[in-house]
Amino acid sequence: MARIDGLNLSGASLNPAGAAGAGSAQDPAAAEAALKARGRQDAVSLSNRGRLVAEAAHAVAMSRDVRTEKVAAIKAALANGSYSSNAREIAERLFANGIGN
Is the dihedral of CA 64, 70, 74, 76 positive or negative? Predict the structure, then answer.
C-alpha cells in the first residue's frame, strides 16, 4: 500500500517491472535485472484518485488567496466531527463562480 502525503492511494501501481503478480513477492534484484533486460526505465502510474489529488494540490499551491486560518478551522472541525456543510449552498456557489460548467 502506497502513501503519499498521508493519503492512501490504494490504486497506485508501484510495480517497476510492470508484470502482473509481481511486487513484494518478487526479488528486487530480479526485478531490476528484468528491467535492464527489457531496456525499460522505472515507472510509476497513479490511479485516477491519485491524479485528482495531484491536480488539487497543484491548484492549491498556485492559488494566492488560500486563507490558512480558515483551512485550519475546517480541518479541526473535520477532526473533531463538528463540521457540517450544505450541499445545495456549495453547488450554488460553484455554479455562480462558473466552476460547475
Answer: positive
- Is the model's pLDDT at 78 over the cut of 90? yes
Q: For position 4, what pLDDT does the model report? A: 57
pTM for this prediction: 0.31
Q: Where are the beta strands (DSSP E) in the chain?
A: 3-4, 7-8
CB contact at 8 A, 84 and 78: no
Pair 42, 11: CB distance under 8 Å:
no
Structural domain boundaries in the chain: 3-96
Residue 31 has pLDDT above 50, yes or no: yes
Mean pLDDT of 17-24: 44
Is 45 in a helix, a strand, or coil? Answer: strand
Q: What is d(CA 47, CA 12) in angstroms, rounded to the nearest whole number?
A: 5
Report the C-alpha dihedral over residues 55, 61, 66, 70, rounded to 10 degrees.
70
Cα torsion angle, 36, 37, 38, 43, sign = negative
